[in-house]
Design a protein that fits this description.
single chain; about 400 residues; mainly alpha; Herpes Virus-1; 3 domains; two-stranded antiparallel ribbon; 5 strands; about 60% helix; flat
Amino acid sequence: MLCLSEQDLLFFVMFFVGVCDLSIKMELSSIKDAFDRVAKKQKLSSSKSQEVVDQVGREIEQALAAIQSSRDLSSPADQKSVLTELKFKINAIGPFQQLEGSNKEVNGSIIKYQRPLEKLLNPDISKAYRNVDFDTRIINQIIANHFYRQGLFDLGDSLVNEAGEPDATALRSQFLEMHQIIGAMREKNLQPALTWVSANREKLDHIGSNLELKIHRLQFVEVLQNGTRADALKYARTYLAPFASLNKDEFPKLMGCLLYAGRLESSPYSELMSPIHWEMTTEELARQFCTLLGQSYENPLSVAVAAGVEGLPTLLKLANVMAAKKQEWQEMKQLPVPVELGKEFQFHSIFVCPVSRDQGSEENPPMLLPCLHVLCKQSIMKLSKNSTRTFKCPYCPAEATVTHCRQLYF
């Protein structure tokens, strides 16, 4: 097990940050220099090419003018002499040799430009790989469910059959139903969606969903636009009336639409015909379908891969720094530097002690000091010499004892 003292850890973090910052600046600088060289060569090549083309063009124009204006060149022999002279002048210019030379210079600078790009954008990611003993069955189930969630049922079935993991099909039928409903909604067929919300009404009410009203609203607009006013009124009385008392703002607007049956697009309520309502309702159904399944709407495998890609540059820098210090980062219980991810990857609250940089846990929970600063329990115990004396808060002049600190719960 690799152990680092506080001084070593502080040095390591500062060294890591400094190396990362300097390395990034150097890489960006080298890429910019290489790009500037390519741009300069390309500009010179373009200018040179245009100059050669203009030279050849002028010689051709002069030859044509000589043939057309001179009366002494009526014989084929005289015309041939003009063309022979033109050929001699063009050979003297050497357009192909000049163009080839400038193109070679541009291609050479492009090849040199590719090298820093490949180094920065196509690194050896195996350096950031950490040996972990994965449960093969769980991995197979995750991948199979990924395919089922995406609607790739044939691909998921093939994986299950080849891997011999029949348990991986536990969610297949549910995701199949979800995709059938979504597919029907994209064809503006709401009957499967209405059947599903009706069967799951109690569960949807429990999570505060108004999905059933939104689907009935879509159907009402379709009836209003494609049917008669009487059909729309009958549908409203049958399916929308039960929601009237809970949606006092929505219901009058829908009733106002009855005045524009068959011409809703030219009414004050034309926005109800926008395709965005279908898209948003379809997405909401998929979200709530997954919620009732106890599954996240975002694909777990896609989220894991995206988070890994975002954190990969930091891990690669860490691997390079550790290699320079001849230390093995894979043996650490936790990384000595934070891997910053976007808010889309934050699914629950966490606390990292500002003193020790350790993440809070059941064994090392966050503790609230009387001054309202928060430290982890182990940091407080260290500062108080195992509760034997008062200690000063690292962030303000206030003093406290362990008994004055309270545990926080996230």
